DNA sequence: CTAGGATTTAGAGCGTGCTCGAAGTCAGGC
DNA sequence: GCCTGACTTCGAGCACGCTCTAAATCCTAG
């Protein structure tokens, strides 16, 4: 009946056995579905394997949630799963690859800036159309721009 | 051998028979593939049926190109094909539906603004990561943030 | 101990937006 | 008139990112 598992926290600090959140709670906190959480894991987006109970159920710690949040933010900026996986590999490989991580992020930043510019540019068309329609409605005028004038 | 068909323009003004550009030239000018041009037509995005030669080949006029450009700009802002089709239906229906067109565009504008805000917000994470990696590289320091610290 | 909701897996399914292919037709320079 | 490259239709294929399913297992309140 609607378990919440708000971190029993019986042991000392963390990395214990039964500590951590259920996948449902992790999904709630990260804003993605449990399906997506499992999919991300299968897709190789995780940096550190999520802990499991004795029986094999996932138990998420804060670090896991934080990383998933990073993933969702990267996804929200349009980074493909494949690239996030690459990034996750670099991160979990540890030090020594900062240059590649930097290159990856800089490339993605360029993509995002380009996307922003494109959105902003094309927003002008939308604004223009809105202006036109507002004007016509205000004037009670009828349309005759894109109608079959042929 | 690489026909260009730069508007023979034999008749008076337009809407003639053999006037208009081939699909290849239309694709070149609008920046989409011929496949996509045909797909858009099939998908019901056209406002006015593209003219055809006696033999059934498409001949695009400037109005067609302009409309396709509108479609690509709407696509570039993330408007789904289905919504563009609806918009095209409204436009080709002629006057009297400005209110609905306006509502459609205003809703889309809101979507675009939300997307812009989301991109900009998540860009901060990217910038932060870039800062971090640049700092580490500058300091010659090694990574220890997302490494398996467990 | 038990009941029953939550979780597990691997794989299939889906929605979107193209992109391609096959087999046949057309157009226009020679 | 003919040859060849461009064009036609329309259904299949594809890449992506989830989303769902089924059958089995787990976990915990009672």
Secondary structure layout plus pairing:
The structure is a homodimer of 150-residue chains.
Chain A: H1 23-30, H2 34-42, E1 51-52, E2 58-59, H3 62-76, H4 81-93, H5 98-139
Antiparallel strand pairs in A: 1-2
Helix pairs in contact in A: 4-5
The structure holds a DNA duplex (30 and 30 nucleotides).
Verbal overview:
The structure is a homodimer of 150-residue chains. By secondary structure, chain A is mostly helical. The first copy, chain A, contains 5 helices and 2 strands, in the order H-H-E-E-H-H-H. Chain A has helices at 23-30, 34-42, 62-76, 81-93, 98-139, and strands at 51-52, 58-59. Chain A has a two-stranded antiparallel ribbon with strand order 1-2. In chain A, a hairpin with a 5-residue loop joins strand 1 and strand 2 (58-59). The longest helix of chain A has 42 residues, at 98-139. Chain A is elongated and about 70 Å long. The termini of chain A are far apart. The model of chain A is unreliable at 1-17 (pLDDT under 50). At the A-B interface, helix 3 and helix 5 of A face helix 3 and helix 5 of B. Chain A binds a DNA duplex (30 and 30 nucleotides) through residues 1-3, 22-24, 33-36, 38-39, 42-43, 53-58, 75, 80-82.
């Amino acid at each position: 009946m609607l378990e919440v598992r708000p971190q029993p926290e019986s042991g000392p600090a963390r990395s214990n056995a039964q500590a951590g959140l259920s996948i449902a709670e992790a999904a709630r906190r990260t804003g993605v579905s449990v399906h997506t959480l499992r999919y991300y894991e299968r897709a190789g987006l995780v940096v550190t394997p999520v802990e499991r109970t004795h029986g094999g159920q996932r138990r998420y710690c804060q670090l896991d949630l934080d990383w998933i949040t990073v993933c969702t933010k990267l996804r929200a900026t349009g980074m493909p799963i494949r690239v996030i996986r690459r990034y996750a590999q670099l991160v979990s490989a540890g030090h020594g690859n900062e240059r590649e991580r930097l290159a990856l992020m800089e490339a993605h930043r360029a993509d995002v800036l380009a996307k922003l510019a494109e959105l902003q540019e094309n927003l002008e068309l939308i604004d223009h159309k809105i202006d036109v329609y507002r004007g016509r409605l205000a004037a009670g005028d009828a349309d005759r721009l894109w109608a079959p004038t042929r």
